[in-house]
Amino acid sequence: MQTTRKRWVKLFFGVLLICSGCATIAKLDLNQLYGEEATTNRVAASNQHATVNSSASNFYQSQVEPILESRCVVCHACYDAPCQLKMTSPEGLERGANKEKVYHGTRILAATPNRLFVDAHSPSQWRERDFHPVLNEREQSPEANTQSSVLAKMLMLKQQHPLPEDKLLDNQFDVSIDRSQQCPTVEEFAGYAKEQPLAGMPYALPELTQTEHNTLMHWIESGGFMPAHASISDDEQQAVKKLEAFLNHDSLKMQLSARYIYEHLFSSHLYFSELTEANAQPQFFKLVRSRTPSSLPIDLIASRRPFDKPNVQRVYYRLQPVVSTIVNKTHQPYALNKTLLDKWQAWFVDAEYDVSQLPSYDPHIAANPLTAFTQLPVNARYRFMLERAQNTIMGYIKGPVCRGQVALNVINDRFWVYFVKPEVAASPQINAFYESQQDNLRLPAEHQSTALAVGWLEYAARQGDYIQARQDFLNSVAKDEHHFTADDIWNGEGENDNATLTVFRHFDNATVVKGLIGAPPKTAWVIDYALLERIHYLLVAGFDVYGNYGHQVLTRLYMDFLRMEGESNFLSFLPPQSRRRELASWYRNPGPELTSFVKGKINLFEHPSGIEFQTDDHKNELYEIFYQHLKNVQPQRYRLQDSHLSENSKALLAQLERIKGTSASILPELSMIMVEPTSGDQAELFTLIRNSAHYNVNSLFFENANRDKTNDNVTLVHGLIGSYPDAFWRVKESNLAKLVANAQQIRTEEDYRAFMDLFAVRRTANNFWEFSDQLNQLFMQRNPIEGGWLDYNRLENR
Hints:
The chain is of the alpha/beta class.
């Protein structure tokens, strides 16, 4: 046995030496042919193009960039870009690729962050971080530019070995989200092509047209020139200057307020809505910390988290133009206008309060906003988050994560969100209670990016103490003066449509939309100030995608507490006798860690409701009471009736929502549907969302064991919801009856495959890219502010 093991070890290292030897030989050959690799070679060539040939800029912008966006960016963006190759900007292409995975949930120590535009700023700096080039960095000649370019070789490999003419891909293709990645350098490419001849780009999708291929190859042969980014307009420069002046006022009051604003908006895309033309995508900005004031270029402070110690005497908050292609999965548009800035002035500047000194950046203080910002009025903090509540919650989905099943299996697949009104949250009694609970409300981010998962027990005990203290507090208040009624729910002052949200989970990604979408869900949350603040600091400001296993597990386990707290707040509006019954139905087969909570040892539910119920169906009656309270701020988006299809067609589509149980469980998470109207008008877009039912969502692993497929259902909306489509359907309006009838007959995987044969645009379809272009163009045309390129990393092969 020992001898056999030794043989395998020798064989493994022998193969490794052969592979590395081949790469070394290839490198020597390339060096002899085209000179040694150096980033300065491309810099010199680019400077020459920039000064003598403006047509190179026009060629890139008019012909090359559209192909890169529509064929490459749809897979290569955010942290889940294969090989960390982000093709959303020239800087990303110049950075190149890296073999290390960002999503690595079992690492013992935190990884070094490699954030584009943050952690390094030149190709030479990225080479020091083990990023290898995908464009030629040797002698700048047409031959060298193609033979020393990974990108060129990937494109040529696809042309030599196009996608097989089959409906479904065979085992030669791995389209799973966690597939292994080879990420070859140009020296390793010959071996890669021999081992995986079908792995050219675009991977597991149809090849480019000959015209598209020739355009990209001509661009690469000519040196792969990419022009500098255009300057922002004079009006935008003035708006930036004015906002930066506001944020960087010298008073302690404003320095603390600006720190608070930055730590909540650092992941958003800010834009000046009053300067944005109708039906046009605006110029977006990122709010960043800089060592330099507005009179000087931005000198970015590159910290892991927005509340980390900046190591400068004075922080300046600056607006940095977003120069990358907008992709929907990371896009959080946030409108700036006079109305909003007047509110910031009232909440943070004109309000009567004093700031005696600025809080420390020590993790035990900075990681907990209830400690760090105790000098800011709760009214200001809570109203700031509520004003754009969708954005606040969306940060959890689109901020530092991009994806992550471990992070998202803590929530149900669809639930509604309501908010406690600020007048309740800002009462002196509640403020005093929050202050008394600072120690119990500590967050895992205080342990930074390398933590031990066993610390969960410490936070569990503190959360238990907090819940018990909170119940005692509510019981004492309710006895004297207050019972829970719909008047305690924020109604957006009658005009803000952020007052209600629907959260859809799609396994390892999610979507947050305004309004109460779909039929009444199994669960709902009511969020108060302390809960909203902790959600943001746990999952957005305090989450490090490069953190170790302990950090990520602690974050996930702590979110269990926050979810249950939001659910408990909702249940508090029900009669006491209904609360325990409802909670038990939400947590069937609970694990031992939740038994005390579910059985009431922690979550006591003693205080009365202030609502007089008229039926025995208390939960659905409560949903209706809340709806009547909030109906004036319900957005009109996503309604089927707003489609331009005929009434009969809309009625047919609505029948899709009858798909339930096992039939629904066979459908993918997100099916995007294009209906071509009989009238000849532009196509209509819809999304069919599968809502996966669970016995409970408190299990960290083995989620499938908690699935309750008999209670799966679907939600159909007009328009597109979600960033990661799993399937595309295309149908003529005249054929809708057949589509609906066939969809309703799906009982098995074979039924689903037969349905897709009739109505799908599969990833293997000859017209895939034509359909993709039409879908994305319609989406962004109809949603110029919120739209962005969809991501194809989850397209199914069924």
